Amino acid sequence: MRTRRAPAAALAGLALLVAACGRKGNPLPPLRPAPAAPADVRVRRIDDRVEIRFTIPDANADATTPSVTDRVEIYAMPEPPGAAAPPASDLIAPAHLKGQIDVRHGDARPAKAGAPADTRPAPGDEARFVDRTGTERRDAAPVLYYLLVSVAGRTRRSKPAGPFAVPLAEAPPAPRGLAATYDEQHLTFTWQGVPGERYRAYDAVPGGALQDAAPPSGAPLAAAALTAPVTFGVARCLAVRGVREAATGVTIEGPASPIVCVTPVDTFPPPVPAGLLAFPGDGTVELSWSAVTASDLAGYVVLRAGDGNDTLLRLTPALTDLHYVDRAVTRGATYEYAVASVDANGNQSAPSARQRVTVRLP
Q: 7 φ, ψ to 5°?
């Protein structure tokens, strides 16, 4: 019986395959990375709602990118006051799902002309979820435990963020005695403080509601006062809430104080001019003075007393120059001069130091 030889090309290919199987290459990355948990979670209870703000993860649990997170699910479960926090396995159940935030990825198709804009947050964006909890605040009101989970596909879940305990029974009282004062530079709101309490101030529309849906900026106020630059002629309305930290990342804001509105009116004169000098001339008196600094400065007025009258009377309209020549004088007469500054609202400063001068004779 004759044995058939394999073709030389086939034997060469088999040798290459065997050699390749023995080489070590770079390991392939996992095809299905797990999503990372939501980051920077901040929870606040305010009135009848719980607001949760967090950052959509921009990487995966193993730090690879792009993020595979398709949505973030928010769960909540009530427990009686004093009870232990429920385990995550109990919280992550369909009965406790409060809602979800869908995530927009870069490969999403652009919206068609006329279609509403895609407002879903992208990886790295801040997201906001609001849960309406009702207004009941009895001593026996439960504690709500919130938990957040990133989800990729149908079943791939991140480690949970939380739980965050939000008590519904406790809240700081509404601050009392809110009042407003102002000067030429600052508008200040003050109220009756409580030792150890912190506060948040919220703007309001005159005759309208508080603008408290915006994310709180900065840390709560430790002092019972808020100072801001004054804007004359513009109404500013404010209300204040007490703030307590219930747990790490969880704050409780109490009911708001009554809204207080104030429209600052500019009744503040500019600074008094300095450096007034008076020189007698040939049938004239020449005056000069130093400039003042004021954002609403309109000019300067010259004041004069004389002819046996010590009362300073306004001699000129508002001047923009820093000098003036008085030609309405009598030779040999003695006069006293002063200068005052005026602003755009007609407020006039006190007179400068007087300068006494006698007009020269011929």
A: -60, 150
Say yes or no to pLDDT of 6 above 60: no
Round to whole Å and give the CA distance between 250 and 63: 27
Secondary element (H or E) of residue 176: strand 176-182
* DSSP 3-state of 96: helix
Alpha helices by DSSP H, listed for the chain, are 8-21, 88-91
Helix (H, G, I), strand (E, B) or coil at 247: strand
pLDDT of residue 14: 43
Q: Which CATH class is domain 277-358?
A: mainly beta
pLDDT tens-digit map of 33-66: 999 999 999 999 998 899 999 999 999 999 999 9
How many residues are present in the chain? 362
Of the CATH numbers 3.20.20.80, 2.40.50.150, 2.60.40.10, 2.60.40.730, which one belongs to the domain with range 176-212+219-262?
2.60.40.10
Domain 176-212+219-262 identical in fold to domain 277-358: yes
Q: Nearest Cα to 52, choosing from 133, 171, 156, 117? A: 133
Question: Considering only CA atoms, which of 163, 159, 162, 156 is closest in space to residue 36?
Answer: 159
Tens-place pLDDT, residues 218-274: 789 999 999 999 999 999 999 999 999 988 899 999 999 999 999 999 999 999 999
What CATH code is assigned to 39-167? Answer: 2.60.40.2060
Two tokens, residue 147: 């938990």
Sheet holding 186-192, edge to edge: 176-182, 186-192, 225-229
